[in-house]
What does this fold into?
Amino acid sequence: MALLDTLHRWAGGFVGLVLALLGLTGAILVHRDAWIMLPHAGDAQIQSTHVLAATTERLMSNPETRPQSVTFANANLGLDRLDFGKGAGAYTEQAGTIVSQWQTQWARPELWLFDLHHHLLSGDTGETIIGIAGVAGLFFVITGTILWWRTRKTFAFRPLPKRLSRPAIVRHHRDLGIVAAPLLVLSLLTGATLVFRPISAVFLGPGAPATIDTALQAPKGPKVALADHLDWRRMIVTARARFPDAELRSLSLPRKESGLVTIRMKRPQEWLPNGRTTLWFAADDGRLIGARDAASLSNVVAAYNILYPLHAAKVGGLGYRLVMTLSGLTLGLLGTLSVWSFWFKRPRPVKVRRGVRP
It folds into this structure.
């Protein structure tokens, strides 16, 4: 037990600050659509095929100004978001008129906060660090629960420690942690699995990672360059005709050498904000190459697809957003105070004079 306690304290002293950062940024980001204060942000979502087709044609017709992707308005945000790459982007009202534009993500707090939460502002390396921190966080919850059991009779719930002394912080950390453990497991497990897909084998079965990779893989399309002029309107009409009950969520230009324009849609039974119902069109002439109906995915893949909505509070409305806000704030508090108590409130060693009994 002493070794477990030492591992818990030392690991927390080094990883706690990263977990605190993830918790606090996550608590803010679950509400990000609500604090985008721009004209038309409160407009009702439009899913008329005619309007979506006309807007897409307007945004994508000029090869010189077309964005790399368009994410269409949703029920909580009445603006389309354009991504031009390298941090540049814009918000438009749903007819395609720009209401805000930027050349760097630092101009929009919701963008750099998202990058901070998902990549620590350092790309794939930061994402890996976040995944490791998530796994470490699960270790803290498990070991913390084991260590709490021996002191369970002294349990007293307090939102904040009585004082900033080390004993008070340790007791608060222990008791608040056991109360928040279920929420922390939910946040940490979903987050770590989204970074490290092989973790899904723990709760979805040994073959889950391979099954998910295969199911979510795009079809092999022609390696062709993107044409200057495509019938964007026809793509939207084709997508809506194929899945008439689905919400149109995004359109993306080919990445690397895929040669495919991708349209993502969300069917009513899907929880994922942008859905997994997907259509792929050839980049040279706009012909339909393939389509995937999310309803046809296996139970394993369907279960994996609900991880992000659970992690980012994209389901359950305001009530669940508040629950995940509480989870993030608690993680931020536990992580911050654990680092503070470890590095700045450690007990000083007792100096014993020679020849004098302590």
The mean pLDDT is 92. Strands lie at 69-71, 80-85, 88-92, 98-102, 247-252, 260-266, 277-282, 288-292. The chain is about 50% helix and 10% strand. Residues 51 and 353 are 84 Å apart (CA to CA).
